[in-house]
Amino acid sequence: MAHHPLQRLASPSRQLSLLLHVAGIASFSASFKFLFNWETPISSSFGGHFQFLTIIGLSLSLGTFVVGALADVTLSSQLFALKNILSVCSAPLEVLISILYWGLCAIDKTLVVPPDLALDFLPDFGFHAAPALFLATDLLVLSPPWTIHGYSALALSESLAFLYWFWVEYCFSRNGWYPYPIFELLNTWQRALLFTFSASLMTGSTMLLKWTYGKINGIEEFKKEAVGNPAGIKRE
Q1: How many Å apart are CA 207 and CA 149, to the nearest integer?
Q2: Which residues contact 126 (CB under 8 A, 6 or more apart)?
Q3: Is the pLDDT of residue 145 over 90?
Q4: What's the predicted TM-score (pTM) here?
Q5: 3-state class (DSSP) for residue 227
């Protein structure tokens, strides 16, 4: 199957593309196996582990790579297109999760993880770094260029951020506590600012991925569009 002329490596394909997607599925599934075998008070609360943005992102990443693997096996252009649509949400979200998690951990890890729920390095890496690495690799070498521009990326990021905030507040109304300790330290307006900042950061991660795509693939137009041209990318 011929791939997009601006795409570095063949995908969908039953070779490297399938190998990457299967490796990602194995990593994400191992994280879920660890999660569901890990008994904590959160496990039996309303919303369970899906109160965490990390787990929502991991679910979206798993879905993206399952569709990608099916596209590789069947060489289906429709499934490949669906994988790329899902990637527009999952890749920037995973980059955002990695930046927020490791950034806050560098300041004070108890802002995001209660001391009694601290993870060893390997599962911590599996939840908070591996998905971003897998999704970014898939985008940069095995996907056509994204056509989403800055305004659309911001609208998507704001929508996801505030949907998650509403979900967190609903879970709080049922459980009486927030999944992340940092939320307990902030009032309503401060949480609004945090989610607005996170949406802006996710928009920035979308543009950063587009810029990196242009850099790696030697496409100057995409680099310029990512840093300042809201008109969007046109496919060749």
Answers
A1: 8
A2: 27, 30, 31, 34
A3: no
A4: 0.89
A5: helix
